[in-house]
UniProtKB/TrEMBL annotation:
Region (Disordered): 142-201
Entry keyword Amino-acid biosynthesis: no
Residue ranges, compositional bias (Low complexity): 145-163
Occurrences of domain HTH myb-type (ranges): 9-61, 62-116
GO biological process: carboxylic acid biosynthetic process; regulation of DNA-templated transcription
GO MF entry, a single one: transcription cis-regulatory region binding
Keyword DNA-binding in record: yes
GO cellular component, as recorded: nucleus
Ranges of compositional bias, category Polar residues: 164-182
Protein name, as recorded: Uncharacterized protein
Amino acid sequence: MGRKPCCDKFVVKKGPWTAEEDAKLVSFILTNGHCCWRAVPKLAGLRRCGKSCRLRWTNYLRPDLKRGLLNEEEEKLVIDLHARLGNRWSKIASRLPGRTDNEIKNHWNTHIKKKLIKMGIDPITHEPLHQEPDPIIISQQMPHSPSNNNNNNCLNSENFNYSTGQESPENANNQTTSNDNLTFPRKNLTGYETQKDDDDDPLMSCIQSETFLDDAFWNFANTSRGDQDYTEFGLSSSSSSSSSEDCNSTWLLDYNDFDFDLECFNIDMSTFEVDATIN
DNA sequence: AAGTTTATCAACCGCGTGCGC
DNA sequence: TGCGCACGCGGTTGATAAACT
C-alpha cells in the first residue's frame, strides 16, 4: 500500500532544470498564473511533476527573489526569528522579502549554524553552549511552546549579544512595544499586502509584538519603497546600483526574448530597461 | 597535476494540513 | 463525518564547485 505518488514517476523528468524548461514555466505562469500546480506541467508542456514546478518557481524563477547571500541584517533577523519560531523556515522567510524558505534553510545549515557554534551559542536552543541545559527550562523556552508566545523569554535582537550569547539585562524587560497599527510586508505575486492570516497564530503574534519587526527595521531591504523602487525584488531602479544588485536582476534578462505579460506583478517594465543598459 | 575532502545549494521526498465533495 | 486531492512545509539527498593535501 502506501501513498499514491503525486505524479507518474516513469513519465516525469527529474534533476536540474534546463533553461528551456525554465523559460516554459516562467512564460506559462506569467501568462496564466498557477491556478493548480498539478495542471501546470501539462499545460506548460513540461515533463515535470507539479510539485517540482512549484518549487522551481518559488525558489528560483519568481521575479521578486533577491539573489546572493544573505546580508548581515538579514542573517541577524533570521537568527532572531529562529530563536522564536524554530525551524519554521517558511514563516521566517515570510519576514525576509525576496528570500525563500529553502534559501534561508540552506543558509542556516551552511553558515549561520557554524557561526553560532563558533560564538558558543547552541543553534537549536540559542543558549550559550557551555551551560548544561535544564530540560524543564528548555521546555518552557522552546519557541514552539504556547506558553512562550506572550512572554519575554524570546531573545531579542536589540538586547541579545551574539558575541557573548547573553541578553543584556537593562533591555530585557523592555521588549514589548506599541504596535497597534503595525502591518507587515508579505510577499505575493503582486508585491506586498497587509498581513492578516497570521493574526490568529499566537507565535506570529509574539513576533509581531517585537520592535525589530517595525517597518523601520526593513529599511535595509528597501530604502524608498514608495517610489517604484523594486530593490526588494532584486530589481534596481537606480543607475548607481551596485554590481551585486545588478546580478540580482540579470537572470530576468535571460528571458527578455519572451513575450511576458508582467501586468500581474504591477512592475514598471522601465525598471528592467534601466538595468539592461547598465549591463 | 591528481586525488580527496569539504562546502554549497538546487531539487527531491514524504508527511501534515486544509478544503471540497 | 470521512475520504481524497492538492498544496506547502521541513528534512534530506545528490551534484557540483572549491579548497586542501
